[in-house]
Amino acid sequence: MSANLSAIFYLISGVLFILALRGLSSPETSRQGNFFGILGMTIAITVTFLSIGSFSSGLIYVLIFLLIGGLIGAFIAYKIPMTAMPELVAGFHSLVGLSAVLVAVSAFLNPEAFNLGSSGSIKLASLIEMSIGAAVGAITFSGSIIAFLKLQGIMSGSPITFRGQHLFNALLLISIVALTYLLCSTQSSNFFWMLLVVSFVIGFLLIIPIGGADMPVVISMLNSYSGWAAAGIGFTLENSALIITGALVGSSGAILSYIMCKGMNRSFFNVILGGFGVTEQSSTSQNKEQKPVKNGNAEDAAFLMKNASSVIIVPGYGMAVAQAQHALREMVDTLKKNDIKVSYAIHPVAGRMPGHMNVLLAEANVPYDEVFELEEINNDFANADVAFVIGANDVTNPAAKNDPQSPIYGMPVLDVEKCKSVLFVKRSLSPGYAGIDNELFYKENTLMLFADAKKMTEDITKNLD
Amino acid sequence: MEIDPFIFRLSIFILSIFIGYYVVWSVTPSLHTPLMSVTNAISSVIIVGAIIAGLAGNSDNDFTISNILGFLAISLAAVNIFGGFLVTQRMLQMYKKKKKDK
After folding, report:
1. 3-state SS, residue A300
2. What is the ipTM of this complex?
3. Considering only residues 218 to 277 of chain A, which have any Cβ-Cβ distance to chain B shorter than 8 Å?
Protein backbone atom coordinates (compact mmCIF):
# COMPACT_ATOMS: atom_id res chain seq x y z
CA MET A 1 0.00 0.00 0.00
CA SER A 2 1.40 3.36 -0.94
CA ALA A 3 2.27 5.82 1.77
CA ASN A 4 -0.25 8.33 0.45
CA LEU A 5 -3.09 5.84 0.42
CA SER A 6 -2.39 4.68 3.95
CA ALA A 7 -2.17 8.29 5.08
CA ILE A 8 -5.68 8.82 3.72
CA PHE A 9 -6.94 5.79 5.60
CA TYR A 10 -5.34 7.04 8.81
CA LEU A 11 -7.15 10.32 8.24
CA ILE A 12 -10.43 8.43 7.86
CA SER A 13 -9.91 6.63 11.13
CA GLY A 14 -9.10 9.97 12.77
CA VAL A 15 -12.43 11.33 11.51
CA LEU A 16 -14.24 8.23 12.79
CA PHE A 17 -12.73 8.86 16.24
CA ILE A 18 -14.11 12.41 16.15
CA LEU A 19 -17.53 10.96 15.34
CA ALA A 20 -17.15 8.50 18.22
CA LEU A 21 -16.82 11.39 20.66
CA ARG A 22 -19.52 13.37 18.90
CA GLY A 23 -21.94 10.46 19.44
CA LEU A 24 -21.64 10.92 23.19
CA SER A 25 -23.63 14.15 23.04
CA SER A 26 -26.72 12.08 23.81
CA PRO A 27 -27.31 8.53 25.03
CA GLU A 28 -29.32 7.69 21.88
CA THR A 29 -26.44 8.38 19.51
CA SER A 30 -23.73 7.11 21.83
CA ARG A 31 -23.86 3.45 20.84
CA GLN A 32 -23.48 4.38 17.20
CA GLY A 33 -20.56 6.60 18.21
CA ASN A 34 -18.85 3.69 19.90
CA PHE A 35 -19.29 1.67 16.71
CA PHE A 36 -17.55 4.43 14.74
CA GLY A 37 -14.70 4.25 17.22
CA ILE A 38 -14.32 0.51 16.75
CA LEU A 39 -14.46 0.94 12.98
CA GLY A 40 -11.78 3.63 13.09
CA MET A 41 -9.52 1.39 15.17
CA THR A 42 -10.02 -1.56 12.83
CA ILE A 43 -9.11 0.57 9.82
CA ALA A 44 -6.00 1.95 11.51
CA ILE A 45 -4.73 -1.51 12.49
CA THR A 46 -5.51 -3.08 9.10
CA VAL A 47 -3.82 -0.28 7.21
CA THR A 48 -0.72 -0.60 9.37
CA PHE A 49 -0.42 -4.28 8.48
CA LEU A 50 -1.01 -3.61 4.78
CA SER A 51 1.48 -0.76 4.64
CA ILE A 52 4.27 -2.91 6.03
CA GLY A 53 3.65 -5.28 3.13
CA SER A 54 6.39 -7.84 3.33
CA PHE A 55 5.82 -9.99 6.37
CA SER A 56 8.48 -11.67 8.39
CA SER A 57 7.84 -14.46 10.85
CA GLY A 58 7.39 -11.64 13.34
CA LEU A 59 3.84 -11.33 12.10
CA ILE A 60 2.72 -14.42 13.93
CA TYR A 61 4.10 -12.99 17.17
CA VAL A 62 2.36 -9.71 16.54
CA LEU A 63 -0.93 -11.53 16.13
CA ILE A 64 -0.33 -13.68 19.22
CA PHE A 65 0.42 -10.65 21.39
CA LEU A 66 -2.55 -8.82 19.93
CA LEU A 67 -4.77 -11.76 20.77
CA ILE A 68 -3.43 -12.13 24.31
CA GLY A 69 -3.96 -8.45 25.03
CA GLY A 70 -7.38 -8.50 23.41
CA LEU A 71 -8.54 -11.47 25.45
CA ILE A 72 -7.34 -9.94 28.69
CA GLY A 73 -9.05 -6.66 27.81
CA ALA A 74 -12.32 -8.34 26.87
CA PHE A 75 -12.26 -10.43 30.03
CA ILE A 76 -11.73 -7.35 32.21
CA ALA A 77 -14.45 -5.43 30.37
CA TYR A 78 -17.03 -8.13 31.07
CA LYS A 79 -16.03 -8.86 34.65
CA ILE A 80 -15.48 -5.41 36.06
CA PRO A 81 -18.22 -4.14 38.40
CA MET A 82 -19.48 -0.66 37.54
CA THR A 83 -18.44 0.65 40.95
CA ALA A 84 -14.82 -0.10 40.03
CA MET A 85 -14.91 2.06 36.91
CA PRO A 86 -12.54 4.76 38.29
CA GLU A 87 -9.89 2.13 39.06
CA LEU A 88 -10.35 0.56 35.64
CA VAL A 89 -9.95 3.86 33.81
CA ALA A 90 -6.86 4.72 35.87
CA GLY A 91 -5.42 1.29 35.10
CA PHE A 92 -6.11 1.69 31.39
CA HIS A 93 -4.42 5.10 31.38
CA SER A 94 -1.30 3.54 32.77
CA LEU A 95 -1.27 1.07 29.87
CA VAL A 96 -1.51 3.85 27.28
CA GLY A 97 1.35 5.62 29.03
CA LEU A 98 3.50 2.52 29.15
CA SER A 99 2.91 1.59 25.53
CA ALA A 100 3.85 5.13 24.51
CA VAL A 101 7.10 4.69 26.44
CA LEU A 102 7.77 1.29 24.85
CA VAL A 103 7.15 2.57 21.33
CA ALA A 104 9.38 5.57 21.95
CA VAL A 105 12.19 3.37 23.30
CA SER A 106 11.80 1.00 20.39
CA ALA A 107 12.01 3.89 17.94
CA PHE A 108 15.05 5.24 19.74
CA LEU A 109 16.84 1.89 19.54
CA ASN A 110 15.86 1.19 15.96
CA PRO A 111 15.25 4.52 14.22
CA GLU A 112 15.72 3.07 10.73
CA ALA A 113 12.48 1.10 11.03
CA PHE A 114 10.59 4.32 11.62
CA ASN A 115 12.43 6.42 8.98
CA LEU A 116 13.93 8.64 11.62
CA GLY A 117 17.54 8.51 10.52
CA SER A 118 20.03 6.06 11.95
CA SER A 119 21.10 5.19 15.45
CA GLY A 120 23.28 7.92 16.88
CA SER A 121 22.14 10.45 14.30
CA ILE A 122 18.39 10.62 14.70
CA LYS A 123 16.71 13.60 13.13
CA LEU A 124 16.51 16.49 15.59
CA ALA A 125 12.76 17.03 15.28
CA SER A 126 12.09 13.31 15.75
CA LEU A 127 14.28 13.23 18.79
CA ILE A 128 12.38 16.08 20.42
CA GLU A 129 9.00 14.53 19.57
CA MET A 130 10.18 11.17 20.85
CA SER A 131 11.39 12.69 24.11
CA ILE A 132 8.09 14.46 24.66
CA GLY A 133 6.11 11.30 23.89
CA ALA A 134 8.29 9.17 26.16
CA ALA A 135 8.36 11.67 29.03
CA VAL A 136 4.63 12.33 29.02
CA GLY A 137 3.97 8.61 28.60
CA ALA A 138 6.15 7.80 31.60
CA ILE A 139 4.45 10.46 33.73
CA THR A 140 1.06 9.07 32.71
CA PHE A 141 2.16 5.57 33.55
CA SER A 142 3.50 6.10 37.05
CA GLY A 143 0.87 8.72 37.89
CA SER A 144 -1.93 6.38 36.86
CA ILE A 145 -0.44 3.52 38.85
CA ILE A 146 -0.55 5.69 41.98
CA ALA A 147 -4.09 6.84 41.19
CA PHE A 148 -5.08 3.21 40.70
CA LEU A 149 -3.55 2.13 44.00
CA LYS A 150 -5.26 4.98 45.83
CA LEU A 151 -8.63 4.20 44.27
CA GLN A 152 -8.27 0.50 45.02
CA GLY A 153 -7.52 1.35 48.62
CA ILE A 154 -4.17 -0.46 48.43
CA MET A 155 -2.55 2.88 49.10
CA SER A 156 -3.99 5.35 51.58
CA GLY A 157 -6.22 7.93 49.94
CA SER A 158 -4.95 10.66 52.18
CA PRO A 159 -2.46 13.10 50.74
CA ILE A 160 1.22 12.32 51.28
CA THR A 161 3.29 15.45 51.51
CA PHE A 162 6.82 16.34 52.50
CA ARG A 163 8.80 19.50 52.96
CA GLY A 164 10.12 21.11 49.80
CA GLN A 165 7.90 18.93 47.63
CA HIS A 166 6.92 21.65 45.18
CA LEU A 167 10.48 22.86 44.82
CA PHE A 168 11.68 19.32 44.22
CA ASN A 169 9.01 18.70 41.57
CA ALA A 170 9.86 21.96 39.86
CA LEU A 171 13.53 21.00 39.75
CA LEU A 172 12.64 17.63 38.24
CA LEU A 173 10.53 19.30 35.57
CA ILE A 174 13.37 21.64 34.70
CA SER A 175 15.74 18.70 34.53
CA ILE A 176 13.46 17.07 31.91
CA VAL A 177 13.93 20.07 29.65
CA ALA A 178 17.67 20.04 30.32
CA LEU A 179 17.93 16.32 29.59
CA THR A 180 15.99 16.70 26.35
CA TYR A 181 18.40 19.45 25.32
CA LEU A 182 21.43 17.31 26.20
CA LEU A 183 19.95 14.34 24.38
CA CYS A 184 19.45 16.39 21.25
CA SER A 185 22.90 17.91 21.28
CA THR A 186 24.84 14.73 22.09
CA GLN A 187 22.55 11.92 20.82
CA SER A 188 23.79 9.95 23.81
CA SER A 189 21.36 7.24 24.89
CA ASN A 190 22.27 7.79 28.55
CA PHE A 191 20.34 11.02 28.56
CA PHE A 192 17.35 9.24 27.09
CA TRP A 193 17.30 6.69 29.92
CA MET A 194 17.76 9.41 32.51
CA LEU A 195 14.89 11.30 30.95
CA LEU A 196 12.65 8.25 31.32
CA VAL A 197 13.63 7.65 34.94
CA VAL A 198 13.05 11.28 35.91
CA SER A 199 9.65 11.23 34.18
CA PHE A 200 8.58 8.10 36.04
CA VAL A 201 9.56 9.75 39.31
CA ILE A 202 7.64 12.92 38.46
CA GLY A 203 4.46 10.99 37.71
CA PHE A 204 4.79 9.29 41.06
CA LEU A 205 5.48 12.48 43.01
CA LEU A 206 2.78 14.43 41.23
CA ILE A 207 -0.03 12.16 42.36
CA ILE A 208 0.94 11.10 45.90
CA PRO A 209 0.07 14.48 47.48
CA ILE A 210 -3.45 14.43 46.03
CA GLY A 211 -6.27 13.20 48.25
CA GLY A 212 -8.91 10.64 47.38
CA ALA A 213 -11.75 13.07 46.84
CA ASP A 214 -9.70 14.99 44.28
CA MET A 215 -9.46 11.87 42.16
CA PRO A 216 -11.97 13.12 39.57
CA VAL A 217 -9.48 15.85 38.66
CA VAL A 218 -6.52 13.48 38.71
CA ILE A 219 -8.15 10.89 36.47
CA SER A 220 -9.23 13.55 33.99
CA MET A 221 -5.75 15.02 34.02
CA LEU A 222 -4.11 11.65 33.39
CA ASN A 223 -6.64 11.10 30.62
CA SER A 224 -5.40 14.30 29.08
CA TYR A 225 -1.74 13.30 29.51
CA SER A 226 -2.30 9.95 27.83
CA GLY A 227 -3.62 11.90 24.84
CA TRP A 228 -0.61 14.22 24.68
CA ALA A 229 1.71 11.21 24.91
CA ALA A 230 -0.08 9.58 21.97
CA ALA A 231 0.17 12.82 20.00
CA GLY A 232 3.91 13.03 20.73
CA ILE A 233 4.39 9.52 19.35
CA GLY A 234 2.11 10.48 16.44
CA PHE A 235 4.53 13.24 15.45
CA THR A 236 7.45 10.83 15.68
CA LEU A 237 5.72 8.28 13.47
CA GLU A 238 4.31 10.98 11.18
CA ASN A 239 0.92 9.36 11.63
CA SER A 240 -2.14 11.57 11.38
CA ALA A 241 -4.51 9.10 13.07
CA LEU A 242 -2.35 9.25 16.19
CA ILE A 243 -1.95 13.02 16.04
CA ILE A 244 -5.70 13.60 15.67
CA THR A 245 -6.56 11.11 18.41
CA GLY A 246 -3.92 12.45 20.74
CA ALA A 247 -5.21 15.99 20.32
CA LEU A 248 -8.83 14.87 20.85
CA VAL A 249 -8.05 12.88 23.98
CA GLY A 250 -5.74 15.57 25.28
CA SER A 251 -8.35 18.30 25.01
CA SER A 252 -11.08 15.99 26.27
CA GLY A 253 -9.18 15.25 29.46
CA ALA A 254 -8.31 18.90 29.89
CA ILE A 255 -11.96 19.95 29.61
CA LEU A 256 -13.03 17.29 32.10
CA SER A 257 -10.38 18.46 34.58
CA TYR A 258 -11.65 22.00 34.14
CA ILE A 259 -15.26 20.93 34.77
CA MET A 260 -14.22 18.99 37.87
CA CYS A 261 -12.18 21.88 39.25
CA LYS A 262 -15.11 24.19 38.68
CA GLY A 263 -17.35 21.75 40.55
CA MET A 264 -15.07 22.21 43.55
CA ASN A 265 -14.45 25.92 43.01
CA ARG A 266 -10.71 25.32 43.03
CA SER A 267 -8.08 26.23 40.53
CA PHE A 268 -6.33 23.45 38.69
CA PHE A 269 -3.01 24.31 40.34
CA ASN A 270 -4.58 24.27 43.76
CA VAL A 271 -5.64 20.66 43.18
CA ILE A 272 -2.38 19.59 41.59
CA LEU A 273 -0.26 21.08 44.32
CA GLY A 274 -2.29 18.88 46.61
CA GLY A 275 -2.54 18.46 50.32
CA PHE A 276 -6.08 19.81 50.55
CA GLY A 277 -7.67 19.44 53.96
CA VAL A 278 -4.41 18.90 55.79
CA THR A 279 -4.14 22.42 57.12
CA GLU A 280 -7.87 22.86 57.62
CA GLN A 281 -8.32 19.91 59.93
CA SER A 282 -6.56 21.54 62.87
CA SER A 283 -8.75 24.64 62.77
CA THR A 284 -12.02 22.77 62.64
CA SER A 285 -11.18 20.38 65.44
CA GLN A 286 -11.01 23.28 67.89
CA ASN A 287 -14.61 24.40 67.56
CA LYS A 288 -15.93 20.87 67.50
CA GLU A 289 -18.51 21.09 70.22
CA GLN A 290 -21.06 18.33 70.41
CA LYS A 291 -24.29 19.58 68.94
CA PRO A 292 -27.47 17.55 69.10
CA VAL A 293 -28.59 15.74 65.99
CA LYS A 294 -31.91 14.12 65.31
CA ASN A 295 -31.31 10.46 64.95
CA GLY A 296 -33.86 8.46 62.99
CA ASN A 297 -34.48 4.96 61.81
CA ALA A 298 -35.85 3.36 58.66
CA GLU A 299 -39.41 3.61 59.94
CA ASP A 300 -39.22 7.38 60.42
CA ALA A 301 -37.69 7.81 57.01
CA ALA A 302 -40.36 5.68 55.37
CA PHE A 303 -43.07 7.67 57.13
CA LEU A 304 -41.63 10.98 55.96
CA MET A 305 -41.32 9.84 52.37
CA LYS A 306 -44.71 8.21 52.25
CA ASN A 307 -46.30 11.53 53.12
CA ALA A 308 -44.23 13.44 50.60
CA SER A 309 -45.38 14.29 47.12
CA SER A 310 -41.92 14.76 45.69
CA VAL A 311 -38.54 13.38 46.71
CA ILE A 312 -35.10 14.31 45.38
CA ILE A 313 -32.29 11.83 45.78
CA VAL A 314 -28.71 13.06 46.16
CA PRO A 315 -26.23 10.21 45.70
CA GLY A 316 -22.54 10.44 46.54
CA TYR A 317 -19.44 8.32 46.81
CA GLY A 318 -20.88 6.54 49.86
CA MET A 319 -23.52 5.00 47.62
CA ALA A 320 -20.82 3.56 45.39
CA VAL A 321 -18.88 2.19 48.36
CA ALA A 322 -21.97 0.50 49.79
CA GLN A 323 -23.07 -0.69 46.30
CA ALA A 324 -26.47 0.69 47.22
CA GLN A 325 -27.64 1.73 43.73
CA HIS A 326 -29.89 -1.31 43.17
CA ALA A 327 -31.45 -1.10 46.62
CA LEU A 328 -31.98 2.60 46.01
CA ARG A 329 -33.80 1.99 42.75
CA GLU A 330 -36.08 -0.55 44.46
CA MET A 331 -36.91 2.02 47.10
CA VAL A 332 -37.69 4.55 44.38
CA ASP A 333 -39.91 2.03 42.58
CA THR A 334 -41.94 1.61 45.75
CA LEU A 335 -42.19 5.38 46.15
CA LYS A 336 -43.38 5.74 42.58
CA LYS A 337 -46.06 3.13 43.18
CA ASN A 338 -47.37 5.47 45.86
CA ASP A 339 -47.52 8.29 43.29
CA ILE A 340 -44.55 10.13 44.68
CA LYS A 341 -42.47 12.07 42.19
CA VAL A 342 -38.81 11.12 42.41
CA SER A 343 -35.79 12.66 40.71
CA TYR A 344 -32.05 12.38 41.17
CA ALA A 345 -29.65 15.29 41.62
CA ILE A 346 -26.02 14.76 40.64
CA HIS A 347 -23.24 17.09 41.70
CA PRO A 348 -20.40 17.35 39.14
CA VAL A 349 -17.81 15.98 41.58
CA ALA A 350 -19.96 13.31 43.23
CA GLY A 351 -18.01 10.05 43.23
CA ARG A 352 -14.47 9.43 42.16
CA MET A 353 -14.62 10.27 38.48
CA PRO A 354 -16.66 12.43 36.11
CA GLY A 355 -20.10 10.88 35.56
CA HIS A 356 -19.48 8.15 38.14
CA MET A 357 -22.94 8.43 39.74
CA ASN A 358 -24.71 8.47 36.38
CA VAL A 359 -23.17 5.16 35.38
CA LEU A 360 -24.12 3.53 38.67
CA LEU A 361 -27.71 4.74 38.41
CA ALA A 362 -27.87 3.59 34.80
CA GLU A 363 -26.60 0.20 35.93
CA ALA A 364 -29.48 0.02 38.42
CA ASN A 365 -31.89 0.68 35.52
CA VAL A 366 -32.67 4.22 36.52
CA PRO A 367 -33.89 5.98 33.35
CA TYR A 368 -31.46 8.76 32.46
CA ASP A 369 -34.25 11.30 32.05
CA GLU A 370 -34.92 11.14 35.78
CA VAL A 371 -31.33 12.10 36.55
CA PHE A 372 -30.46 15.79 36.61
CA GLU A 373 -27.32 17.88 36.85
CA LEU A 374 -26.83 20.50 39.52
CA GLU A 375 -27.95 23.52 37.46
CA GLU A 376 -31.00 21.71 36.13
CA ILE A 377 -32.43 20.70 39.46
CA ASN A 378 -31.16 23.13 42.07
CA ASN A 379 -34.28 25.30 41.94
CA ASP A 380 -36.52 22.30 42.51
CA PHE A 381 -35.34 21.67 46.07
CA ALA A 382 -37.48 24.53 47.34
CA ASN A 383 -40.60 22.76 46.04
CA ALA A 384 -39.63 19.24 47.09
CA ASP A 385 -40.75 17.63 50.32
CA VAL A 386 -37.86 15.32 51.06
CA ALA A 387 -34.20 15.35 50.04
CA PHE A 388 -32.70 11.89 50.45
CA VAL A 389 -28.92 12.30 50.68
CA ILE A 390 -27.20 8.96 50.33
CA GLY A 391 -23.44 8.90 50.80
CA ALA A 392 -22.88 12.56 49.94
CA ASN A 393 -21.82 15.31 52.31
CA ASP A 394 -19.65 18.22 51.20
CA VAL A 395 -21.67 18.76 48.03
CA THR A 396 -24.70 19.66 50.19
CA ASN A 397 -22.91 21.81 52.74
CA PRO A 398 -24.53 25.26 52.98
CA ALA A 399 -21.23 26.59 54.39
CA ALA A 400 -20.11 26.85 50.77
CA LYS A 401 -22.71 29.59 50.35
CA ASN A 402 -22.75 31.44 53.64
CA ASP A 403 -19.44 30.94 55.43
CA PRO A 404 -16.56 32.82 53.78
CA GLN A 405 -14.19 31.18 56.28
CA SER A 406 -15.00 27.71 55.07
CA PRO A 407 -12.44 26.02 52.83
CA ILE A 408 -15.19 25.06 50.44
CA TYR A 409 -16.66 28.55 50.30
CA GLY A 410 -17.76 29.35 46.75
CA MET A 411 -18.11 25.76 45.66
CA PRO A 412 -21.42 25.15 43.89
CA VAL A 413 -23.61 23.01 46.17
CA LEU A 414 -27.00 21.37 46.00
CA ASP A 415 -29.57 23.41 47.94
CA VAL A 416 -30.96 20.46 49.90
CA GLU A 417 -31.62 22.64 52.96
CA LYS A 418 -34.48 24.27 51.03
CA CYS A 419 -36.44 21.03 51.15
CA LYS A 420 -39.09 20.61 53.82
CA SER A 421 -37.08 17.80 55.34
CA VAL A 422 -33.68 16.29 54.69
CA LEU A 423 -32.70 12.67 55.25
CA PHE A 424 -29.00 11.90 55.55
CA VAL A 425 -27.88 8.30 55.14
CA LYS A 426 -24.37 8.18 56.59
CA ARG A 427 -22.29 5.70 58.46
CA SER A 428 -21.25 8.19 61.10
CA LEU A 429 -21.18 11.87 61.89
CA SER A 430 -17.65 12.15 60.53
CA PRO A 431 -17.08 15.17 58.30
CA GLY A 432 -16.36 14.78 54.59
CA TYR A 433 -12.93 14.73 53.01
CA ALA A 434 -12.47 18.44 53.46
CA GLY A 435 -12.69 17.94 57.22
CA ILE A 436 -15.51 20.45 57.47
CA ASP A 437 -18.53 20.04 59.63
CA ASN A 438 -21.88 20.16 57.85
CA GLU A 439 -24.31 22.43 59.67
CA LEU A 440 -27.15 20.66 57.91
CA PHE A 441 -26.75 17.73 60.28
CA TYR A 442 -27.93 19.83 63.20
CA LYS A 443 -30.87 21.51 61.53
CA GLU A 444 -34.40 21.21 62.82
CA ASN A 445 -35.71 19.49 59.71
CA THR A 446 -32.81 17.07 59.23
CA LEU A 447 -33.04 13.44 60.18
CA MET A 448 -29.82 11.47 60.36
CA LEU A 449 -29.96 7.79 59.42
CA PHE A 450 -26.77 6.20 60.69
CA ALA A 451 -26.33 2.94 58.82
CA ASP A 452 -24.80 1.29 55.82
CA ALA A 453 -26.43 2.93 52.80
CA LYS A 454 -27.52 -0.33 51.23
CA LYS A 455 -28.98 -1.79 54.40
CA MET A 456 -30.80 1.44 55.25
CA THR A 457 -32.45 1.78 51.83
CA GLU A 458 -33.55 -1.86 51.99
CA ASP A 459 -35.07 -1.29 55.41
CA ILE A 460 -36.87 1.81 54.24
CA THR A 461 -38.33 -0.12 51.29
CA LYS A 462 -39.63 -2.75 53.70
CA ASN A 463 -41.23 -0.06 55.83
CA LEU A 464 -42.81 1.61 52.83
CA ASP A 465 -44.94 -1.41 52.03
CA MET B 1 10.25 28.04 -0.32
CA GLU B 2 8.91 24.60 0.41
CA ILE B 3 6.91 24.04 3.57
CA ASP B 4 8.24 21.45 5.98
CA PRO B 5 5.81 18.49 6.33
CA PHE B 6 6.08 19.02 10.06
CA ILE B 7 4.06 22.20 9.67
CA PHE B 8 1.24 20.21 8.09
CA ARG B 9 1.22 17.77 10.97
CA LEU B 10 1.27 20.64 13.40
CA SER B 11 -1.74 22.13 11.60
CA ILE B 12 -3.62 18.84 11.92
CA PHE B 13 -2.69 18.74 15.59
CA ILE B 14 -3.82 22.28 16.39
CA LEU B 15 -7.07 21.97 14.44
CA SER B 16 -7.81 18.65 16.14
CA ILE B 17 -7.41 20.27 19.53
CA PHE B 18 -10.09 22.75 18.55
CA ILE B 19 -12.36 20.01 17.19
CA GLY B 20 -11.84 18.11 20.45
CA TYR B 21 -12.65 21.22 22.44
CA TYR B 22 -16.00 21.80 20.76
CA VAL B 23 -16.96 18.15 20.49
CA VAL B 24 -16.22 17.40 24.13
CA TRP B 25 -18.14 20.42 25.41
CA SER B 26 -21.18 19.02 23.65
CA VAL B 27 -20.89 15.70 25.48
CA THR B 28 -23.67 15.38 28.04
CA PRO B 29 -22.31 15.26 31.62
CA SER B 30 -24.11 11.99 32.33
CA LEU B 31 -21.87 10.32 29.73
CA HIS B 32 -18.58 11.60 31.11
CA THR B 33 -17.52 8.17 32.35
CA PRO B 34 -18.10 6.51 28.95
CA LEU B 35 -16.27 9.49 27.44
CA MET B 36 -13.22 8.65 29.53
CA SER B 37 -13.30 4.97 28.69
CA VAL B 38 -13.75 5.59 24.97
CA THR B 39 -10.98 8.20 24.82
CA ASN B 40 -8.90 5.60 26.56
CA ALA B 41 -9.67 3.08 23.87
CA ILE B 42 -9.01 5.41 20.96
CA SER B 43 -5.75 6.74 22.37
CA SER B 44 -4.54 3.15 22.11
CA VAL B 45 -4.32 3.70 18.37
CA ILE B 46 -0.70 3.97 19.48
CA ILE B 47 -0.78 0.25 18.64
CA VAL B 48 0.04 1.41 15.10
CA GLY B 49 3.49 2.38 16.33
CA ALA B 50 3.75 -0.81 18.34
CA ILE B 51 3.05 -2.97 15.27
CA ILE B 52 5.70 -1.14 13.25
CA ALA B 53 8.14 -1.60 16.14
CA GLY B 54 7.30 -5.29 16.40
CA LEU B 55 7.73 -6.00 12.70
CA ALA B 56 10.76 -3.80 12.10
CA GLY B 57 13.91 -5.45 10.80
CA ASN B 58 12.39 -8.38 8.93
CA SER B 59 15.18 -10.74 9.89
CA ASP B 60 13.54 -14.07 10.60
CA ASN B 61 13.31 -15.21 14.20
CA ASP B 62 16.11 -12.88 15.18
CA PHE B 63 14.28 -10.39 17.32
CA THR B 64 15.95 -7.27 18.57
CA ILE B 65 15.06 -5.60 21.86
CA SER B 66 13.26 -3.08 19.73
CA ASN B 67 10.96 -5.81 18.34
CA ILE B 68 10.26 -7.28 21.75
CA LEU B 69 9.34 -3.88 23.17
CA GLY B 70 6.99 -3.55 20.22
CA PHE B 71 5.34 -6.89 21.03
CA LEU B 72 4.83 -5.85 24.65
CA ALA B 73 3.37 -2.52 23.58
CA ILE B 74 1.00 -4.38 21.23
CA SER B 75 -0.34 -6.45 24.13
CA LEU B 76 -0.78 -3.43 26.38
CA ALA B 77 -2.53 -1.40 23.71
CA ALA B 78 -4.71 -4.38 22.78
CA VAL B 79 -5.86 -4.74 26.40
CA ASN B 80 -6.89 -1.12 26.22
CA ILE B 81 -8.55 -1.28 22.82
CA PHE B 82 -10.68 -4.34 23.55
CA GLY B 83 -11.24 -3.47 27.20
CA GLY B 84 -11.98 0.17 26.49
CA PHE B 85 -14.46 -0.31 23.66
CA LEU B 86 -16.23 -3.25 25.29
CA VAL B 87 -16.62 -1.61 28.67
CA THR B 88 -17.91 1.53 26.96
CA GLN B 89 -20.38 -0.61 25.04
CA ARG B 90 -21.45 -2.26 28.28
CA MET B 91 -22.01 1.08 29.97
CA LEU B 92 -23.87 2.62 27.07
CA GLN B 93 -26.25 -0.35 26.92
CA MET B 94 -27.37 0.56 30.43
CA TYR B 95 -28.51 4.09 29.61
CA LYS B 96 -32.22 3.70 29.04
CA LYS B 97 -35.06 6.12 28.72
CA LYS B 98 -38.13 6.03 30.92
CA LYS B 99 -40.65 3.48 29.72
CA LYS B 100 -43.80 5.11 28.38
CA ASP B 101 -46.23 3.09 30.49
CA LYS B 102 -44.75 4.23 33.79
Report:
1. helix
2. 0.93
3. 219-220, 223, 226-227, 229-231, 233-253, 255-256, 259
